[in-house]
Here is the input.
Amino acid sequence: MLCSLLPKFGGNLDRMDIFSKFKDFKVARQLEEAGVYPYFKVIQNAEGGTVYIDGKRKVMAGSNNYLGLTHHPKVRSAAKDAIEKYGTGCSGSRFLNGTIDLHIELEKRLAHFMGKEAALVYSTGFQTNLGTISCLTDENDLIFSDEENHASIIEGTRLAEGETIVFKHNDMKDLEAKLKEHQDVKGKIVITDGVYSMTGDIAPLDQIVKISKKYNARIMLDDAHGIGVLGKNGKGTADHFNVTNDIDIIMGTFSKSFASLGGFIVATEEVIHYIKHKSRAFIFSAAMPPASLATVLSVLDILEESDEHVQRLWKITHKMQKGFQSMGYDTSPSKTPIIPINIGDEARTFFFAKAIYDAGVFTNPVVAPGVPPGQGIIRTSYMASHTDQELNLILDTFHTIGKMCEMIK
Ligand SMILES: Cc1ncc(COP(=O)(O)O)c(C=O)c1O
Here is the structure.
């Protein structure tokens, strides 16, 4: 019996241990040995656009805290008050003992803010996609998913019944061709990000709506990076294109502009009613805790009250896009506060990011599978709370180090 298995494993007994892959996993250690490993950096202190790592000051150009509200006095105090009133956790699933009045208040407020009938709040954004998408389809249904959709969408489609058809990134001809090819299938849904998290480009949602309607397909939008950034008062990509009524399900997270942790969907009451009784990632997981809920409610107050933070974010975005482009960096196809610096070669990406980091700027080098192989980027992103001084320091650093590393002329 054992002998008959050997050829399958290349005759190597070692390979039969499922743990052998741990020993074989070398790439992260190689980066560490080369002194350019950029991940799991430990932040000791953070305030506004500045963080401290290993006791050294770094300007943060790699956060998703787009509105810069994690340190807003009102938001901090709302979180503290919630802990005083409700304690630190909910100790159970929403379905059973974990629902507190703040969940209900937040769901009402989100539905209203996003212009839909009802909302459902999950404990993370990843769970929101996983738990929602996995219960949307039956075996005869089809999901049409953009090739650059977020990992949590991909995991959701893997769990969902029915086939997933991947269309080329933001390629409306390809989407239409694929929908047309399957026009006889009744149950169809198109799933797209609103703003792409690595490259900062925006999905052509108006065209997606037009094409999906033509082929009777429903639409789900993941607006993790669009809410707080695009649309009136940061209502997101659907509002930006004026197509909120045409999108069946809008998903968002609280870990970015909402300065907290968690995720949500908004849709009709009927959709929400079904998902909250079917979604395993919702039912079999503990509820979002009080301080996180109060944080989001307080950010909603700020967003509804004024557009000031969104406006500042766009002023910063235009300054940085112009600044990078005038130095000769390629930042395409970004249209948002996520500004990638396109490098290409992966080793070069890591070495350049390390030089930028050593000069005092925190960014995120991204290589495959975060981006297609050989298209390494340094992902920079901006916050409404960045000061002009911090922004100038980022640009000056990219100028000096870019010249030194021959990235720019
Ligand atoms: C597009 C997109 N969707 C979903 C998620 C998951 O959200 P969270 O990190 O809040 O769990 C992310 C987070 O990186 C994201 O970028």
